[in-house]
Design a protein that fits this description.
By secondary structure, the chain is mainly α. The chain folds into 3 domains: about 1-165, no CATH class; about 220-285, Dna Ligase, domain 1; about 300-485, no CATH class. The chain is built from 15 helices and 8 strands. It has a two-stranded antiparallel ribbon with strand order 1-2. It is found in: Cell membrane. One of its GO terms (cellular component) is plasma membrane. Its EC number is 4.2.2.29.
């Protein structure tokens, strides 16, 4: 055995795969701890080592194949572990250059060394177990390296090889990592379950999974309005918001369980706080009370629209309705030639057996009450008010009602320098033509046979041109003072309206309107 001081072992090479590492460790382990005669043949070199250049200073090895097997290791004594070389037995110390990376340095050679350890009796030999994967129990950690003196982490003892020892600190670190991963996983799972529960509860409330109900009979009365187009779920959600019923699900179930084919109609109903869902459903469906007819009137509706809707919702024909609609049958101003403008905007419920006369009286009553509230008691004033209000309703947006009402009053002044008492309003001309469109021809503008043509007839038209809202009536009763004489809606979709004091300025706005209609022919009624 050579006594030469061996150079420090090179740093651990880089491996392309675990398999390369296993082959490297197996060969290195056998080389460092073998005894006896050993020659690495070409076949063995190809199996355990990468191809290496042969040093010129070394003798050629025999081509004869020598059996490659591990030799016994003694626990102590001559040739024991303490005397075993830490390098292959024929390592050349003359190679002072830096060792290149690889499985083994090219200067390493294995042959029949004269320094081989003496053979021990067969029964004293201890062989490291070579079956299976040598490093199958090694857990690789990123950036972690094994000891240079013992790369596999095994301890050689007298009887052979034991399982790898794991440092106590490393064991604690691994347990800490595992515990941390477990805590993070459990925490994340708990948070997920919590969020799922919250979302489930919210969705349940939204779609009415909760079917709790109030025991009844209910508390203080409350007015509840059903809007057109609302179904049981939307109505149920609103009832829950008003604290009228306890849950949407209970209300929906009550509607489905009600023995009726009726539908909930738009309108105002009297309900109670915290009432049973079944009671609320029966009130809204009219169960247990006389059957009702439902009729609604929208702002701007003409009288023929109203009559058609009444005929649709009742058993009366349009002819029967028109016959009953004689103004002299009602307490209306003598100036009223029809019920146009006097039937109030709103929603109505009538008993199934109500006469057409009773129905019309009920629909006129709100307008008469509004006259009284505004302190407009004389018939001619009432007729003038409802006529102006109907024009305001047709021509302006609610936010412009008072301004347009003031302009109408300015135009009606025959001494004004702009219109000399002519209203010159398109909506009145179109109403007199009996059509529903936004534009008309120059010939229509000159048509004096149209009593509602305010371009050729000075002052107000003979009567209202539609049903005015309460807001329009209020604006007509209190017009806003201004020096404006003109207005024009330059964008029908948005309702944008521009006002002017002179006709020249008004003409500029008219050009804007014409350009808009050129781009939106269908909206302007040209299509």
């Amino acid at each position: 055995m050579t006594d030469s001081k061996l150079p420090e072992e090179p740093s651990e090479p880089q491996f392309r795969s675990r398999r390369e590492r296993r082959e490297y460790e197996r060969a290195r382990h056998q080389a460092r701890h073998m005894t006896g005669e050993l020659t690495v043949t070409q076949e063995d070199s190809e199996h355990y080592l990468p191809e290496a250049e042969t040093s010129p200073a070394e003798p050629e090895t025999s081509e004869a194949e020598v059996e490659f097997r591990p030799q016994p290791i003694a626990a102590d004594g001559p040739g024991g572990l303490q005397d075993a070389p830490s390098r292959p037995v024929n390592y050349s110390p003359d190679q002072s250059a830096e060792e290149p990376e690889g499985f083994f340095n090219d200067s390493i050679r294995y042959d029949n060394a004269a320094t081989a350890l003496p053979q021990l009796p067969e029964d004293t030999r201890a062989y490291p177990e070579q079956s299976g994967n040598v490093d199958s129990d090694i857990e690789e950690q990123p950036g972690e390296k094994t000891s240079d003196d013992n790369p596999l982490g095994y301890m050689l003892v007298g009887d052979g090889m034991q399982l790898p020892e794991i440092d106590e600190e490393e064991l604690k670190t691994r347990k800490t990592r595992k515990r941390r991963r477990t805590i993070i996983m459990l925490t994340s799972f708990a948070v997920f379950l919590g969020l799922l529960a919250i979302v489930g509860i919210g969705v349940g409330q939204l779609v009415g999974w909760n079917n709790k109900d109030f025991p009844g009979p209910g508390g203080q009365e409350i007015a509840f309005e059903v809007n057109p187009g609302e179904g049981p779920i939307v109505i149920g959600n609103r009832l829950v918001e008003e604290n009228i019923v306890a849950s949407t699900r209970a209300f929906r179930d009550a509607v489905e369980a009600t023995d009726t084919t009726a539908q909930i109609q738009p309108g105002e109903y009297t309900l109670r706080y915290e009432m049973p869902a079944r009671d609320a459903a029966e009130v809204l469906l009219g169960v247990g009370i006389p059957g009702m007819n439902y009729v609604h009137v929208n702002s701007g509706h003409r009288i023929d629209d109203v009559f058609a809707h009444i005929a649709e919702r009742t058993d009366y024909s349009i002819e029967e309705i028109e016959e009953a609609a004689d103004p002299t049958n009602f307490d209306l101003p003598t100036e009223a030639s029809t019920l146009e403008g006097y039937i109030a905007v709103g929603e109505y419920h009538f008993p199934l057996d109500a006469s057409i006369q009773e129905i019309l009286e009920i629909m006129i009553e709100p307008t008469m009450e509004e006259f009284e509230r505004l302190d407009v008691n004389e018939g001619a004033q009432q007729h003038r008010l409802v006529t102006v209000a109907s024009i305001v309703e047709a021509e302006a947006r609610p936010e412009d009602y008072a301004t347009v009402a003031g302009i109408i009053e300015n135009r009606l002044d025959e001494s004004n320098p702009e219109t000399a008492g002519f209203l010159q309003i398109d909506a009145t001309v179109i109403y007199g033509m009996g059509v529903r469109q936004l534009q008309f021809t120059a010939e229509d503008r000159r048509d004096a046979s149209n009593e509602y043509n305010t371009y050729v007839h000075r002052g107000l038209p003979p009567g209202p041109i539609g049903a005015p809202s309460i807001e329009a009536l209020d604006a007509a009763a209190a017009p806003k003072d201004s020096d404006y004489y003109y207005w024009i809606t330059t964008n029908i979709e948005t309702g944008e309206t521009k006002f002017s004091s002179t006709y020249a300025q008004h003409q500029e706005y008219q050009e804007e309107y014409r350009a808009y209609c050129d781009d939106n022919a269908e909206i302007c009624g040209r299509g």
